[in-house]
Amino acid sequence: MTYRLSIVPGDGVGREVVPEGLKAVRAAAEVTGSFDFETVEYPWSCEYYAAKGVMMDADAMERMRDSDAIYLGAIGFPGVPDHVSLWQMLLPIRQQFDLYINLRPIRLLPGISGPLRDRGPEDVDFVCVRENTEGEYCGVGGRIRAGTPDEVVTQTAIFTRKGTERVLRYAFDLAQTRDKQLVSCTKSNALNHSMVFWDEITQIVAADYPDVSVSTQHVDALAARMVLNPQQLDVVVASNLFGDILTDLGGALQGSLGLPPSGNLNPEGTFPGLFEPVHGSAPGRAGQGTGNPMAAIWAASMMLDAIGEPEAAALIMGGLEAVALGGPYTKDLGGTARTVDVGDAVAAAIRAS
Ligand code: IPM
Ligand code: MN
User: Fold this and answer.
1) 294 pLDDT band (50/70/90 cuts)?
2) How many domains is the chain partitioned into structurally?
């Protein structure tokens, strides 16, 4: 089996970490001997925008559509407003490829010291299922009478029954494969339309999963619980914006934002999934070769899992865990290693396994 991967390194440290993730995929392919892959790299980025006036070519979606997965570094660079770069690239890919699940594991790897005084790797191990195509991120809204005292701005959150039901169903399915504990993130005390609806759908879907114990918690209280009692969490399901915020907090619980990965999935497999680190392009630190590639490598593992190579995915996780335990570490984790040193060490650990 030869997979076709669309590679979009993007901007900043994205370009530095993507090659390290591909090194890990190469090593895992060689060790398992069960698959091969070819890559098509696209230059779409803020630099591309500066030269061509667009973040991606008009036929970008067509070109990526036939690939088995998209592997992305990071998007964003000073000079192009973030809402322009993201609304011309990452967010349209998520929406047009109907990548309605954004899966984000939150796991403190042994060897990494997290920020919580009394909590270690055995306490921080859960998954956030973030809705990824609608909600607060649907892009619906407008602005009239700009710059005048009568200016009006709207940003409308859209919750469809289909969109809400399918993300909840996915989360219940996932909970069934884990500890059968699901927390549905809400804010129905204040958001009396959207989140009351979200809670209703949670209850309707729950009826099909009598073996899963589900509770509902307001996002503010859930944020506090992630810090105070992360060991109580197993699967968390959240709307787009809430999931976005909670997973940066989750990244912090993992000891560094250089660690958390993200899988944007179309579970039906109609479109290729997109795999990326949660972290951004870190323009201030780009070009130094010192960014942590672990999130990108972890995302590569998620990608192999999603395309049907769980053994290779597990090998990459094993390599990552070995390096988490023994180093080398980049600056964010208190070390002096360079991006390539960590990538080489993970690849070597994969080959040694
Ligand atoms: C993420 C990022 C994006 C998001 C931004 C860059 C639009 O923060 O993947 O979490 O909010 O979805
Ligand atoms: Mn985010």
Assistant:
1) very high
2) 2
